[in-house]
Amino acid sequence: xxxxxxxxxxxxxxxxxxxxxxxxxxxxxxxxxxxxxxxxxxxxxxxxxxxxxxxxxxxxxxxxxxxxxxxxxxxxxxxxxxxxxxxxxxxxxxxxxxxxxxxxxxxxxxxxxxxxxxxxxxxxxxxxxxxxxxxxxxxxxxxxxxxxxxxxxxxxxxxxxxxxxxxxxxxxxxxxxxxxxxxxxxxxxxxxxxxxxxxxxxxxxxxxxxxxxxxxxxxxxxxxxxxxxxxxxxxxxxxxxxxx
Amino acid sequence: xxxxxxxxxxxxxxxxxxxxxxxxxxxxxxxxxxxxxxxxxxxxxxxxxxxxxxxxxxxxxxxxxxxxxxxxxxxxxxxxxxxxxxxxxxxxxxxxxxxxxxxxxxxxxxxxxxxxxxxxxxxxxxxxxxxxxxxxxxxxxxxxxxxxxxxxxxxxxxxxxxxxxxxxxxxxxxxxxxxxxxxxxxxxxxxxxxxxxxxxxxxxxxxxxxxxxxxxxxxxxxxxxxxxxxxxxxxxxxxxxxxxxxxxxxxxxxxxxxxxxxxxxxxxxxxxxxxxxxxxxxxxxxxxxxxxxxxxxxxxxxxxxxxxxxxxxxxxxxxxxxxxxxxxxxxxxxxxxxxxxxxxxxxxxxxxxxxxxxxxxxxxxxxxxxxxxxxxxxxxxxxxxxxxxxxxxxxxxxxxxxxxxxxxxxxxxxxxxxxxxxxxxxxxxxxxxxxxxxxxxxxxxxxxxxxxxxxxxxxxxxxxxxxxxxxxxxxxxxxxxxxxxxxxxxxxxxxxxxxxxxxxxxxxxxxxxxxxxxxx
Lengths: 244, 520
Known about the structure:
CATH superfamily of the largest domain in chain A: P-loop containing nucleotide triphosphate hydrolases
Oligomer: heterodimer
Largest interface: A-B, 38 and 35 residues
Strand content of chain B: under 5%
Structural class of chain A: alpha/beta
Number of domains of chain A: 2
Number of helices of chain B: 21
Order of helices and strands of chain A: EEEEHEEHEHHHEHEHEEHH
CATH class of the largest domain in chain A: Alpha Beta
Largest sheet of chain B: 2 strands, antiparallel
Number of strands of chain B: 2
Helix content of chain A: 25-40%
Radius of gyration of chain B: 24 Å
CATH topology of the largest domain in chain A: Rossmann fold
Shape of chain A: globular
Radius of gyration of chain A: 18 Å
């Protein structure tokens, strides 16, 4: 259907914890330049998958390709240089200011600190840059994390439930920001969520995971063909009330 | 009832292991130290002399660790607000304290058992005095409780556990030195000095015949009075702070702002009227930026300073025995510091450095940005620089102390070597502690390991096996217990290198292999 290169691709990706299966035989394909919505109920294995892709967890089986290259221990970090990520909750040093936190990330990414003011403007934190992050609201921390991920203008952005805990205005703002990224910054976005409505509004592609297994993957439009409305499709696929 | 709830909360936490490790150390000490022929005839009495000293060395830090663990449990779960809605403040604090008290009670009981066992095992010549042993039991229990209450208060007030543990360390060093100073009210007043103040066995050492004679004295009533007063006062304070927690933190923050952030608040006023449009970059290495606005250097300044001040005073007060100028002063300054206080202090440093990464989801960020080599390397480089600064500070204090005590002789020739080898030794401890603080996500536990390590190092050094643990390398390198000691330089450097490489390698390996666990 498309001939685009896949930015992220996994083959038979599995993660076991003893006898417990967290992720099983996962084939994830994220085409270049799209927004990929990674859907699933709580505990389905979304965060585990994203952590596996970033090398934060070691896979039990299978392989991962980023930008068309196999990820190995040796090239992991050089490939990750072209990614930005926000996993679980925001990561930050609370006793430092927003600007100082960004300076640390810029240094570690090897990016010029001159990028920081622009990024701060993008996430509307410029005015708050000299405040300690401990004194930030949750929404501000979330935006700071997005700023950290955007530093260095990566090709791939991996966001794990970025709207968690935000108020409606915050969600709206985050959505607009993410939607604009492929066009304005030429990025591919892999975003996970347990809220279908959210993914529906921004994603081009989507993958649905349940109990560690991928049960649907493809263009969002294809998913809509399977039933009257997406809500119903999603609930049927994930086993309905049982998983909620 | 509350006790059962607390026990449930501490399920799978194994805090009692800290007390167990301490008991094991004390048993080792008794077994190794008491089999001296000249001590056997008076063994039962000597135990009552030795153990309070051992307690005042170790229990303050152990109580700090224990209280910190008990309080941090709730800090981490952010459960205080919920507890307030479920129970009265008195019940919340009561449950915590009953749990702590029970732990201490059991500890004292087992300690008593160990004392009786060693007594019977070595067949001491004298008869045990049951009343004296009962009194010792009550003393230990009461003074431990004072320290536990004090540390609980500190651990509750300062979420950053580095504060309470550093205060505990400084206090216990002060308390230990007070033992060797001429009696003053200070001696009974400072909580950390109470183990010594409630002692009722004295040592009379005859420098001519070199015979030590132990004898009972009347227990010091002032010390008991202060013990009771401290318990009452601390209980009241804890309850008060608990009941008025919200208001209290508000006042506390304002107070802190007022005193520490004066300059900044001016800036803030400015920035409120017009946003500061320039961004200032520190251009420091990453790890150094993270050290901004952290008060941990206070502990590094204070601990060697306490050791130096009291060491100098002790030197000046005992010139008849300590007649070797700079060399005598050196032991006074460094002996306790190197064995008992620098290892835990370096432990505080490493726990502090790794806590930055253990908190929240910071590992997710860090590990996608930097390689294990760089992460460990950066932390150890910072540790190296900071321990270098501590070492410089110790030497400045030493020379200042000598000038103050008006020592006329030239400085010891070995001084640069003490400095160099001390530096290497303290870096070896840093690498070791860095590993423990990396794999143990808890703040206080690695510090307990460092404290035990220091004691084990002392015991092993006494038997000539100093090279078995990294913790004895600092005191060996600095020739802390005997300035005339000829250090086997080759063996020292080799041992240091082995420990440094071993623990650095293990740390890097751990980061390469382990799955990331983030703490919410």
